[in-house]
Design goal:
By secondary structure, chain A is mostly helical. Chain A is 78% helix and 0% strand. Chain A has helices spanning 2-28, 30-52, 84-120, 122-137, 140-151, 155-181, 185-192, 197-233, 245-252, 260-288, 290-295. Chain A is globular and about 75 Å long. Chain B is of the alpha+beta class. In chain B, the strands form five sheets. In chain B, strands 1, 8, 9, 10, 11, 12, 13, 16, 17 and 18 form a ten-stranded mixed beta sheet that branches. The chains are: A mainly alpha, B alpha+beta. The interface between A and B is medium-sized, with 22 and 25 residues.
Chain lengths: 296, 513
């Protein structure tokens, strides 16, 4: 009994060490460090702040409309007298959720496609890749706009649209990895031992191909946040009274002269979020890249 | 604020009075500076200058600078002469005889006469023209040319307000010779009798109008040129006005009005009664609007005060029907509703609609309506109705409205028309297009619409219009909430401007200093 619990404690300690080691590596890279701090801060704000703020994001106060920053409203109020800080935080939840959800969805679609195409090769690979090429050939924002317009307005459809636009990048990336990995000895060994394709793909190849996917995911979240903002800016994304950063910029833009913080606050939030995710992605790339690691 | 507006009207009246009263006329030329170019920032491109095809205010404005209309509306909202010199109803309101001015020529030198008017009216009524004004003349049975300057409009039924559409583009007269010659291209080569001629048109960039030196109203126009520049962005239009790039700007952003009124170097002109707003419901069985109690709940449940203050930034006024301030039929004391959330809740309870009640409302990206819709949404939530706002583009909105499948209309509004019949029949009469879109038909209402058309005196019509308003509010297919104003910004050098409730500017009375 005692031995078992000892082993568990040992296991926990090792895991803790690994996390600590990972964080140390992460924070040794300045890009990754700043990126992580930015992202973690924003996520924490999105999760915790709504409980602390005195005003609800949809509470209207007709007596103070488009008022400037004050102690009561640090970023002022919007055109319906709603607290901009509260809406900014509520917007953080939605904007970041759409960003993460669309990238997870894109990875779920793109990664298996890339695995299958790369492993199977031949005609299947050709067909898959030409379809993806044709998607990549279109400007991503225009494509997202078209898909969102066809699916209809709303954040769920926006998420799907962004995911569909982002998926080909994941598929291409994974396919490239699979092509170089599938002739490795351990894959051949698994194959010769009669392991089913499913096992070879997900047990043997995927874990070794995952690093660039993580980097791509972080970069893609930055793109997603921007795209969601753009779609909400033209009215396809968030629907009133929902607030996302993009929709806040869209409305606040009309009152730029009267109440500048209305548009500037969410615009800054978009900037910081995208910066955070891109720096994190770039940092992770440097850390996870075997070539770079050997140099360090 | 009122002072400046009245002053503006007074200044505007100057040249107009000058034409009629000779003692004043002698003084007028000394104060009026001739020549110069007026550049106007407009909200949208005019698109066509064919008065019978144009749709937007910009197109109607430009068409009417080029073409004169048969009638016009005076400052009391009553019919006044223009190309028509005098008119008379006979046969119990079924025949309208019109005497035209003589000696007027089109820009191409051809003569304006009764035959030309008949050609234009026939053109509107010809389905091949595809004119959206055809409906405005539906009461017309036939048009007879009596002599060169006399016309007889014979109507299908007595219709007191028949001539009012002829104060706008439906009554704008173009040269039949030019219409024959240009065919479908007439919209780009318009020839009228108006104070200005079209000399240059670049879509979405600029429209240049040049003075007609032979204009029949002596002395007018004062300007040499009018340049119309479409600038869709509110802040850019305003910036152009401030920097002096334009001397006049239409559709000033409402949130800036109170601040602009403090500004020294520009004049804010306000014209109340520009349009009225409503929230509309679909009465068909699959929508909550099928219940009269449900619809009536909003008459008591919406916060008109907040809508007025927030959606319109306190401009214009709260409204309770479709009769605009400035109309001879308007009654400022008609205020049947006061916000009463408890009463509204009770009506929702009586509606028999199973809870939770959810209703979808499409919304175009119009800032005023975005504000209004979100206040409506909050008001509705207080009485237990969830409104799901769905943002759509204007084409999608129209398609949905016309299909008769729009659960509720958050966007409802009608622009000024000189006679309320011009839109109330469309909205309320069982054959009217908007009545059909909303699934509304009430024989009682049809009777009232017919009665006001037959009524001979203004007082009689006013009494019937009140009954129409009362029944409209009882049925609550449209829940009216506001009368809005039109705002134009002027450089102080712009004189002689008359702000009409239609929002259409007559450039011939304007002069620079």
């Amino acid at each position: 009994m005692e031995e078992v619990s000892d082993m568990r404690a040992e296991d926990r300690r090792m895991r803790f060490d690994r996390v600590r080691h990972g964080l140390r590596v992460l924070f040794r890279n300045p890009l990754a460090a700043v990126g992580t701090i930015l992202v973690v801060t924003q996520v924490l704000i999105a999760l915790v702040a709504p409980m602390l703020l005195p005003h609800g994001p949809n509470d209207m106060d007709y007596t103070s409309v488009l008022s400037g920053p004050s102690f009561r409203h640090p970023f002022g109020t919007d055109e319906l007298g709603r607290d901009i800080l509260s809406r900014l935080v509520a917007g953080a939840q939605l904007s970041l959720s759409v960003g993460v959800a669309s990238v997870v969805l894109a990875a779920l679609v793109g990664v298996p496609l890339g695995l299958v195409a790369g492993y199977a090769g031949g005609i299947l690979d050709e067909v898959f890749m030409r379809i993806l090429d044709s998607i990549i050939a279109l400007p991503p924002l225009v494509l997202a706009l078209t898909i969102a317009a066809v699916l209809g307005t709303g954040l769920v459809n926006t998420t799907i649209a962004i995911a569909l636009v982002s998926a080909p990048a994941f598929a291409r990336l994974v396919r490239g990895q699979v092509l170089s990995l599938k002739h490795n000895d351990y894959v051949m060994a698994a194959y010769s031992m009669g392991a089913p394709v499913r096992v070879i793909l997900f047990r043997h190849i995927l874990p070794n191909a995952i690093n660039p996917v993580i980097v791509q995911a972080s970069l893609a979240i930055g793109f997603s946040v921007i795209t969601e903002s753009s779609l909400s800016f033209i009215g396809l994304g968030a629907q009133p009274p929902q607030s996302t950063w993009g929709s806040m910029v869209q409305v606040g833009f009309q009152y730029l002269e009267l109440q500048p913080s209305f548009a500037l606050a969410p615009a800054t939030a978009i900037f910081l979020a995208v910066l955070g995710f891109i720096m994190l992605g770039e940092g992770l790339r440097q850390i996870l890249d075997p070539m770079a690691r050997s140099r360090g | 604020m009122m002072d400046r507006r009245n002053l503006l009207r007074f200044m505007a009246a100057g040249p107009v009075i000058g034409l009629v009263a000779s003692p004043l006329r002698a003084q007028a030329p000394a104060t009026i500076k001739r020549g110069g170019t007026l550049t106007v920032a407009i909200f949208a491109d005019p698109i066509t200058f064919d008065p019978h095809l144009t749709g937007n205010v910009q197109g109607r404005t430009a068409s009417q600078a080029i073409h004169d209309t048969l009638f016009t509306v005076d400052d009391k909202g009553r019919l006044a002469p223009r190309l028509a010199e005098s008119w008379e109803f006979s046969d119990g309101g079924k025949v309208l005889t019109v005497k035209l001015r003589s000696g007027i020529k089109f820009h191409d030198g051809t003569v304006f006469d009764a035959a030309a008017v008949k050609y234009n009216i026939d053109r509107i009524r010809d389905p091949k023209t595809g004119s959206i004004r055809e409906g405005e003349l539906r009461a017309l049975d036939r048009l007879e040319v009596v002599d060169a300057t006399t016309l007889r409009f014979v109507l299908k039924y007595p219709f007191a307000a028949f001539a009012f559409p002829l104060t706008d583009v439906a009554g704008a007269i173009g040269s039949p010779t030019a219409m024959e010659k240009s065919g479908k291209d007439y919209g780009l080569r318009p020839v009228g009798t108006g104070p200005f001629k079209l000399v240059e048109y670049q879509k979405d960039t600029r429209t240049v109008l040049e003075k007609n030196p032979d204009y029949w109203q002596s002395g007018q126009p004062y300007l040499d040129r009018v340049i119309l520049r479409p600038i869709p962005t509110d802040s850019t239009r305003l910036a152009e006005l401030r920097s002096g790039g334009v001397q006049m700007a239409e559709a000033l952003p409402l949130q800036d009005i109170s601040r602009l009124r403090q500004t020294q170097n520009l004049v804010v002109s306000e014209q109340p009664g520009f349009r009225w707003e409503y929230f509309g419901f679909n009465l068909r069985d699959e929508h909550p609007g099928r219940s009269k109690a449900f619809r009536q709940a909003f008459q008591w449940g919406i916060d008109r005060e907040a809508l007025h203050k927030i959606a319109y930034f306190g401009t214009g006024s709260i409204g309770f029907d479709g009769i605009l301030p400035g109309s001879p039929f308007f009654d400022a004391d008609y205020k049947p509703f006061k916000r009463d959330v408890e009463k509204a809740k009770r009506l929702i309870g009586e509606s028999g609609i199973s809870t939770p009640i959810v209703i979808k409302g499409p919304l175009q990206p119009d800032p005023v309506k975005q504000r209004a819709a979100q206040i409506f949404q909050a008001n509705a939530a207080e009485i237990g109705v969830k409104v799901e706002i769905e943002q759509v583009d204007s084409a999608g909105y129209r398609t949905l409205l016309q299909s008769g499948q729009m659960p509720m209309d958050l966007q409802g509004w009608w622009g000024y028309r000189p006679d309320p019949d011009q839109y109330l029949a469309i909205l309320l009469q069982s054959g009217g297009s908007y009545a059909k879109f909303h699934g509304y038909a009430n024989p009682e209402m049809d009777k009232l619409i017919g009665a006001q058309r037959e009524a001979q005196s203004e007082a009689e019509r006013k009494a019937i219009f009140r009954k129409i308003s009362e029944l409209m509010n009882e049925d609550a297919v449209y829940v009216p909430w506001h009368y809005s104003s039109d705002f134009k910004g002027l450089h102080p050098s712009v004189k002689g401007f008359v702000h009409t409730p239609s929002g259409i500017t007559a450039f011939e009375t304007i002069h620079l200093g």
